[in-house]
């Protein structure tokens, strides 16, 4: 592996599509979880145009953007120009921005677009900009960024900014990885050969998200609902499973993917989760997050009691 291929899975849309296994939770694919939640919120899209304004942060090539797009105008943002190019091809009418989530959120608020979005989505992507508040990862290694307390302020500002972008009755919807899944425990074990995760470890970014959104709830700015779902990522064979770990989780980081002990650990994990038909069933987990701005207590009453 080389510097040129570092993090290629999140820069090149073709590599991303090739490496990414489908993820299922209770028989439902991850993107359909989002679609089902939006139907709970707004009712079936039914192919009819809607006038809601939606923002997808860390949109990548737009794989999970379609549930948002069904309800109105779409704005996608991603730090990779290659991903945004593919996003534009998939959603030619959408607004598209190249930029990392921290900068995009700050810029939108500075432009006076607080309270502008009926839907804000972040699907599997928010962990990365939050981690970048504490450390920088390149092909050369992992380097801490300044004061951890200053990083925590930055991370909280990002999450709080998501709520500030919502309209008075807007909805923030996220898919956030579960650090306790077997998949993520292995990823943590391997990355910590290079450097420990900041704060409390692999779940630190989730704790920040939860804390900020609960604080917003306590301040009366909305209500938070989180569903923790166990599931499985299905790789078609052992080779595909290895690539998911090497490219998707380890970002082709030379210090890991060139280490024989790391490869042996991945191989053992893959072998332990290979089904009789040759597919690899990787134990996965997700938190389906829904923060509704401005929700009133009466909204929780049954219809007969209103």
UniProtKB/TrEMBL annotation:
Top-level taxon of the source organism: Bacteria
EC number of this enzyme: 2.1.1.-
Record domain Methyltransferase: where: 55-128
Name of one Pfam family that matches: Methyltransf_25
InterPro entries, sorted: Methyltransf_25, SAM-dependent_MTases_sf
CDD domains attached to this UniProt entry: AdoMet_MTases
GO biological process, one term: methylation
Gene Ontology MF annotations: methyltransferase activity
Keyword Methyltransferase included in the entry's annotation: yes
Keyword Protein biosynthesis among UniProt keywords: no
Keywords recorded for this protein, A-Z: Methyltransferase, Transferase
Name assigned to this protein: Putative methyltransferase
